[in-house]
Amino acid sequence: MTAGDHADKTSLEPVRRRVAQCQCGQLSISVPGEPLGVGICHCLACQRRTGSVFAALAVFAAPWEVVGEARDFWRTGDAGARFCFRFCPNCGTNLFHTEEGEQDTVSVAVGGFADPDFPPPQVSVYDCRRHGWLRLPDGVTAYPRDPQWA
Ligand SMILES: [Zn+2]
Ligand SMILES: [Zn+2]
Questions:
Q1: Is 75 inside a domain boundary?
Q2: In DSSP terms, which residues pair with 29 in a beta bridge?
Q3: Nearest-ligand number for the alpha carbon of 49
Q4: Which ligand is nearest to the CA of 89?
Q5: Which residues surround ligand 1, an ion (CB under 5 A)?
Q6: Tens digits of per-residue pLDDT, 47-96?
Q7: Domain count, the chain
């Protein structure tokens, strides 16, 4: 991004951008506006890739900007869609992923924003894999599997 193009010229309101970064700071992604959706995923692959007991993801519309070097890991979801996970080769943080053939949205790890005031999740997917001790906040819609992303 160059100086001066951070404001939308058709509007007086500058578009808010958020930046998520990896643990070491080498890799970052800047995303525009508010997330299209925020969700948590309890699937076993997300448990393994994050090392946590669930993943928290925020979906943002293009355009996004990546700074730094990322490595890719491809995984095929239950419904056959292929997802490309990007992680920092230095510290290993899983920062964001995209779906094959999908150019318009990116899913970013909520923890990468290091912002406790980040909007809360609206959906919980793969709830069939949720750890028994984990309680969902009020207002979250739980799906036993993945209604849209898998
Ligand atoms: Zn890193
Ligand atoms: Zn998952």
A1: yes
A2: 20, 66
A3: 2
A4: 1
A5: 22, 24, 26, 88, 90-91
A6: 999 999 999 999 999 999 999 999 999 999 888 889 999 999 999 999 99
A7: 1
